[in-house]
Automatic annotation (TrEMBL):
Location of the HTH luxR-type domain: 150-215
Residue span(s) of domain Response regulatory: 8-124
Highest taxon of source: Bacteria
GO molecular function, one term: DNA binding
InterPro entries per record: CheY-like_superfamily, NreC/VraR/RcsB-like_REC, Sig_transdc_resp-reg_C-effctor, Sig_transdc_resp-reg_receiver, Tscrpt_reg_LuxR_C, WalR-like
Protein name: DNA-binding response regulator
Source organism per UniProt: Streptomyces violascens
Keywords linked to the UniProt accession: DNA-binding, Phosphoprotein, Transcription, Transcription regulation
Residues recorded as bearing 4-aspartylphosphate in the entry: 59
PROSITE patterns referenced in this protein's UniProt entry, alphabetically: HTH_LUXR_1 (PS00622), HTH_LUXR_2 (PS50043), RESPONSE_REGULATORY (PS50110)
Native organism taxonomy: Bacteria, Bacillati, Actinomycetota, Actinomycetes, Kitasatosporales
Amino acid sequence: MTTSDPTRILLADDHALVRRGVRLILDSEPDLTVVAEADNGAEAVSLARETPVDLAILDIAMPRRTGLQAARELSRLQPDLRILILTMYHNEQYFFEALKAGACGYVLKTVADRDLVLACRAAMRNEPFLYPGAENTLIREYLERLRQGRPLPDRAITEREEEILKLVAEGYSSKDIGDLLVISSKTVERHRANLLQKLGLRDRLELTRYAIRTGLIEP
């Protein structure tokens, strides 16, 4: 890509109306163009492999894979790809997870018309973008953790367990999950048992509630 070419964007959100609105915002700018759209995280990863893109904008809550799960995989596959997370959530836990997943920005959907273009340009300059007000929230959280001697929040479960938890909560059977992740049904059952034990939960219903609380799926 030369300096005069527009930034090629992959846009992933499971709501078609949101994608349409975001695309209108982006395509109205001469230096930005949406070249691919996905309605789930797994499709976003697949499209990024097939289509030359400079920037991925990922909704945080999507089927099959969340934006954070997709961001982690894309960061491993394409370290030079810039990633922005698009979200409804004012949540410092998600923000820290987004940074650890390789994202360089975190944009609230409620103000996307104001902030998204700025975030795209900041990302392409390799600069971080925080939604207005995030700095104060995050600095307060960081200072409070330092005062209490606590580290930054850790992941309660592994990436693979998170993948399986999300699919279980979305209603997939062990066989379906095994087919999607190219592992055996027995391995899926073992991961599921580990999840129940780690999280102190009893069944699929409680796993689903946990997935909703942690933003892996929407209620």
